[in-house]
Design brief:
This protein has about 260 residues and is α/β, with parallel strands linked by helices. The protein has eleven helices and eight strands. The longest helix has 15 residues. Bound molecules: phosphoenolpyruvate. Phosphoenolpyruvate binds next to β8. This is Triosephosphate isomerase.
Length: about 260
């Protein structure tokens, strides 16, 4: 199978993390309007997901209601279920608040909060143990890219976090490749040519064995379609371009119209 997006036959995953943005009112109204838009049936061939702040998770869950086609996620979670970990929130707690996906190892968490390959491994295991979907973020810095080490670096990040998983557990994982130099305000969009090799290698390693392989980093309405066209890209993980609902809805439409979308 070539150029099919990934990794088994499945939907294109298109999701957004809001990072440390949006209070309760804004979170509720975004999710309510999204839910109205996609209805109970969702969009054929596309799996939408939204990752609000912890504080808005339960409210977002309530707005979506049961059996929504939109999945909800948390931006992080601790690997222990409970205990003396002041300021942390456990996988059990985010599950209780409505999370079905848990984002792990975003580069901002690695840079500012000491997330390591070892902590990502513990978190992936905890998320799987609770029956949720780990969304493992991997990505190299500009320095690593300049040294020509991008692919080696991201494969090591992935292998470290996924070490010891059974085939069944691995089959429930999502990976988002998000080069650090391509994300956020200071990032510059990656070109399709720059992304071909990392995705080819990730596809070689994990193709057919995981739920999906996503791309993230300065995705917008202009580049989404061509990014989805890269071999082994099975979805998009989006920040700024999806923080306002019309942008996210447009991205969902672009994905739904893509030949890789399997309804
Ligand atoms: C991100 O920070 O993970 C991200 C994808 O952000 P943006 O789309 O805004 O570059």
């Amino acid at each position: 199978m070539t150029d099919t997006g990934v990794i088994g036959v499945g939907p294109l995953w298109v999701g957004t993390s809001w990072k440390m943005n949006k209070g309760l009112t804004e979170s509720r109204s975004y999710v309510r309007a999204l839910s109205d838009h996609v209805g109970r049936k969702g969009l054929p061939g596309v799996q939408p997901f939204v990752i609000p702040s912890f504080t808005a998770l339960a409210a977002a869950r309530d707005e979506l209601g049961a059996d929504s086609p939109v999945l909800l996620g948390a931006q992080n979670a601790h690997w222990e279920d409970a205990g003396a970990w002041t300021g942390e929130v456990s996988v059990a707690q985010v599950k209780d608040a409505g999370a079905q996906i848990v984002e792990i190892g975003h580069s901002e968490r690695r840079e500012h909060f000491g997330e390591t390959v070892e902590t990502t491994r513990l978190k992936v295991a905890a998320v799987l143990a609770h029956g949720l979907v780990p969304l493992l973020c991997i990505g190299e810095s500009a320095e690593v890219k300049r040294a020509g080490e991008s692919t080696r670096f991201i494969l090591e990040q992935a292998a470290g976090a996924l070490e010891g998983l059974s085939a069944e557990q691995l089959g429930r994982v999502l990976i988002a490749y998000e080069p650090i130099w391509a994300i956020g305000e200071s990032g510059r969009p990656a070109t399709v040519d720059e992304l071909r090799e990392p995705f080819a290698e990730l596809g070689r390693e994990y193709g057919g064995r995981m739920t999906g392989l996503l791309y993230g980093g300065s995705v917008d309405l202009d580049n989404a379609e061509e990014l989805l066209g890269i071999d082994h890209v099975g979805g998009l993980f989006v920040g700024r371009a999806a923080w306002q609902l019309p942008g996210y809805l447009r991205l969902l439409e672009i994905a739904a119209a893509h030949p890789k979308a399997t309804g």
